[in-house]
Amino acid sequence: MSFTADRLLLFGATGDLAQRMLLPSLFALDADGLLAPDLKIIGTARSELGDSEYRNFARAALEKYLPAERRGQMAGFLNRLAYQTLDATALEGYAALAAKVGTPERGLAIFLSTAPSLFEPTIKGLQSAGLTGDTVRMCLEKPLGTNLATSREINDAVAAAFPENRIFRIDHYLGKETVQNLLALRFANLMFEPLWNAAHIEHVQITVAETVGLEGRVAFYDDAGAIRDMVQNHMLQLLALVAMEPPAHFDATAVRDEKVKVLRALRRVASNETVTGQYRAGAIQGQAVPGYDEELGKPSDTETFVAIKGHVDNWRWKGVPFYLRTGKRMPKRVTEIVIQFRCVPHSIFAGKGATMQPNRLVIGIQPEENITLSLMAKVPGLDREGIRLRQVPLNIAMPDAFSGAVRRIAYERLLLDLVEGDQTLFVRRDEVEAQWEWVDAIRSQWDADGLTPKTYTAGSWGPSAAIALAERDGVTWHE
Question: Residues near 425 by Cβ (< 8 Å), separated by ≥ 6?
Answer without folding.
Answer: 174, 175, 180, 413, 414, 417
